[in-house]
Amino acid sequence: MLFSHTSVAAALFFMALATITYRQNRPELLEFVKRYGLFFPVFSNILGSITGPGIWYLTSVASPRGISARIHSFVWEWATEWVFFMIELVGVYAPVYRVGKMDQRTHLKLTIILGIASNTTMLIILGILSLMMWPSKTEWFN
Q1: Phi/psi at 23 (5° precision)
Q2: Inter-residue contact 40 to 4 (CB < 8 Å)
Q3: Among the four residues 18, 55, 97, 134, which has the most C-beta atoms within 10 Å?
Q4: Whether the Cβ atoms of residue 14 and residue 48 lie closer than 8 Å to each other
């Protein structure tokens, strides 16, 4: 969870920095994105890619039928999340590596797409996890 939440926060932070940079003409903020932005894809993609399959492996070992039922119950939600996740994975590189190499309007659009896709990914996963953790029987509330 640490990697995914940090990734979403960084995407929204870079989106805010790009917006402030271009609206207030403050190019020093883009220097910050260049300097510290290299950490963002490494942290979120590499460490997230290592821990993500580990979580799936552990849950499938602990309860194979349970995780299979959850995947089948939320197949379209997972598919939707996967689309936004792919946008996020591809989009994470453009705002960082292409700073100063593309026009401001295009850079801002890509950064906003990254921020929205990252936030949408988190919201979809949060919704799925919330429904998965909701008890199915009203007697459990008493």
Answers
A1: -80, -35
A2: no
A3: 18
A4: no
- CA-nearest of 82, 103, 91 to 44 is 91
Residue 44 tokens read as 């979120």
Q: Which pTM value belongs to this model?
A: 0.77
| Tokens matching residue 13 | 């932070």
Task: Calculate helix-pair angle for 48-62, 64-73, nearest 10 degrees.
Answer: 110
Domains of the chain by residue range = 2-52+63-133
Tens digits of residue pLDDT in 3-17: 777 778 888 888 898
Integer angstrom CA distances of residue 75 from 20, 45, 79, 80, 82: 38, 23, 6, 9, 10
Residue that wins the pLDDT comparison between 110 and 140: 110
The two tokens of residue 133 are 């953790």
Measure CA of the first residue to CA of the last residue in the chain; give whole Å: 30
Contact 131, 30 (CB under 8 A): no
Q: Residues of 36-58 as b/e, b for ≥16 C-beta within 10 angstroms?
A: ebeebbeebbeebeeeeeeeeee
- 92 — phi, psi (to 5°)? -70, -25
| Radius of gyration from C-alpha coordinates of the chain | 18
